[in-house]
Amino acid sequence: MRKWKTLGAAAGLAMTLVAAGCGNDDSASGSFSEQVDYKITGIEAGAGVMKATEKALEDYETLEGWTLQPSSSGAMATELGNAIEDEEPIIITGWTPHWMFSKYDLKYLEDPKGSFGEEETINTMTRQGFADDMPDANKVLDQFNWTTEDMGEVMLEVSNGTDPAEAARNWVDNNPDKVAEWTDGVEKGSGDVSLAYVEWDSEVASTNVMKVVLDDLGFNTTITPIDNAVMWQSVAQGEADAMVAAWLPTTHGDLYDQYKDQVVDLGPNLEGAKTGLVVPDYVDADSIEDLEAK
């Protein structure tokens, strides 16, 4: 998930991780648990994936005594990259779409108790009255739909150092057929459109792409990164016109319940989003139940 992921101060994470013993005997998973010091490397406190991880800590006996270490999306990705470079064990709060799945060989730990819920969708929400005020822009937003692979291309380019606006422009220029589906029936636009988004990698990608598409049609589009709750509130109160960043039903479920009568749900713009506990492929654990209580 971007996951799952409000802006917060990046906490310094210090882990003593030992590469040896990711294991090939019956004590392998226990050795892994000890090597990561029974800590899960998280992101911003309050993010949906963090709340789900807190639930997993309660649901699984194998996670008894474990701690969830908050940080930020960027700090988590840095810790992951450092661990993989040295082939050391690590366990993180992860989500897809995310560029790290394109860059590294990773796997979700199976979640037999369903603490992280089922696959999610990312939905487009607009303020009430937007369709009447800006029917052409609303039509584009309503027709916006892409895949995790599409989003991953943009996210990976950004992670490699390309400015998000430039990466979005590159993707739009390279995918004219898909963009034509979103803009079908809209020849030219005009007027101001404001999009709010939470600054997760996934939503940075989707919102910048939508800005390029709307601007190319003639709209004057502004995009504003804000906190999760403020994003929902701004659309509900009409301070922003729309967002393409609503993770449902779990990640933003509480916010959706709070604001669903004040926003218009245009439906999914992406399907197959997921959250959970993630480890490198070389780690000898496949399920949360393979871990060991402290």
Q: Can you give a write-up of this model?
A:
- With about 290 residues, the chain is an alpha/beta fold.
- Helix 2 (about 50-60) links the parallel strand 1 (about 40) and strand 2 (about 65-70).
- About 40% of the residues lie in helices and about 20% in strands.
- Helix 7 (about 150-160) crosses helix 8 (about 165-175), helix 7 (about 150-160) crosses helix 10 (about 200-215) and helix 8 (about 165-175) crosses helix 10 (about 200-215).
- The strands form three sheets. Strands 3, 4, 5, 8 and 9 form a five-stranded antiparallel β-sheet that branches.
Task: Show unreliable segments.
Answer: 1-30
Distance between the termini: 28 Å
Q: Number of DSSP helices?
A: 12
Q: Kindly report the name of the CATH homologous superfamily of the largest domain.
A: Dipeptide-binding Protein, Domain 3
Based on secondary structure, the structural category is alpha/beta
Rg (C-alpha, Å): 20 Å
Number of strands: 9
Mean model confidence by pLDDT: 89
Helix content: 25-40%
Name of the CATH architecture of the largest domain: Roll
SSE order, one letter for each helix or strand? HEHEHEHEEHHHHHEHEHEHE
CATH topology of the largest domain: Dipeptide-binding Protein, domain 3
Q: Count structural domains.
A: 2
Overall body shape: globular
Q: What is the CATH class name of the largest domain?
A: Alpha Beta
Q: Roughly what fraction of the amino acids lie in strands? A: 15-25%
